[in-house]
Amino acid sequence: MLGLLDLRERGERLEPSRFEIDPTVTDTVRGILADVRDGGDRVLAELALRFDGADLSASGLVVTDDEFDRATSETPAELRAALDGLIARLHDLHARQLPSGWWDEHEGVRFGEVVKPLVRVGCYVPGGRAVYPSSVCMTVVPAVVAGVEQIVLCTPPRRDGSIPAAVLYAARHAGATTVVKSGGAQAVGALAFGTASVPGVDRIVGPGNAYVTEAKRQVAGIVGIDGLAGPSELAIVADDTVDPSLAALDLIAQAEHDPQARTFLITTEPEVIERVGAALEDALERAGRREIVDEALGHTRAVLVRDLPHAAQVVDDLAPEHLLLLLAEPDMFLGTVRSFGAVFIGPWSAVPFGDYGVASNHVLPTAGTARFASGLRTADFVTVRSVVEMTPASASRLAPETSAIARSEGLVGHAAAMDARIAEDRT
Questions:
Q1: Is residue 311 part of a domain?
Q2: Could you read off the pLDDT of 124-157 as tens digits, one per residue?
Q3: Which residue, of 41, 108, 363, 399, has the fewest CB within 10 Å?
Q4: From the candidates 94, 321, 389, 414, which is the catalytic residue?
Q5: 117 and 36 share a domain?
Q6: Catalytic annotation on 322?
């Protein structure tokens, strides 16, 4: 089950997964976006019927108050309480991330930054293989904490034109202002361009399939996006203290996400691979979603490395979405790595805890983008603007040197604008 890569004596380096969009997907998405831009709500309804089998002529594109009320009564009390807990944890986490404005003054120059929330954002929540109320909370709550006025959530409808009750309960209680029954590239187009029913937004966040990802890529620049989501990833770094049954369960949990999920077990010990492999075979007998899990585990690799510094190099090369450290001294190792979406330390910190809001948002960078990107956070929903105020004395003092630089660049108009602020020139 665990394919082996022995890098102890080899100089090769592992490559992260890359975004590879089929050209036919690119062309299809381009056509869908153009149709939505030109046809608006009519096209959204037509595509819901074509792709989701949902006739929205009766229920409409936008979820009504009655539908929200029914969803609350249809969501089991235990699940409502669990979602309320998830929302509360995310509020606490994301409140800590909110950037603060600041001011300072130095020799007549008053300067600082002001923080302003975006006016409208769009949150995309996938459907299809599973129901994801957790993704509703992960995308909506940081926008609420940031102070965004309008939060539009798009998610695919079921064949009867409804949205799963748990998704609607999460949307209402997390703070979404509008829920639209639309999925796929067409939902991204609606959020980017706006329609009669869907407000155009400033930024689109949330994961989706290849069509959603390509649509976000094509509208980036018209609106902001959080990133391009690829298959989920996990790298486990383990030593001989590992509990193999726990490591096996973490591999299976990650494999549940997607048939293309990528998982790695990185260790210096061949015996660890043998023990985890045996535990994995045993755990699979009780696993669900076997078709998805089995295909995903076909991509799993056990990676043998020379030592822990070599393991850190492998992690940084992969830049995985999730990193799990099952080591005797995990904190020491953590100080040697830099490229990962979120790290989970020790045998009790199962990665799925982060999927459900325990001290992490689960919208994380994939496909090697953890080298330069962070997980979804409150700062993604605000802008930070510079503010400058100068006195006559500070303008007189700084103009000669700043205008000298401007003239060296051939920007005489810049220089003239600054020189005009020299006090003696204004008398």
A1: yes
A2: 999 866 799 999 999 999 999 999 999 999 999 9
A3: 108
A4: 321
A5: yes
A6: yes
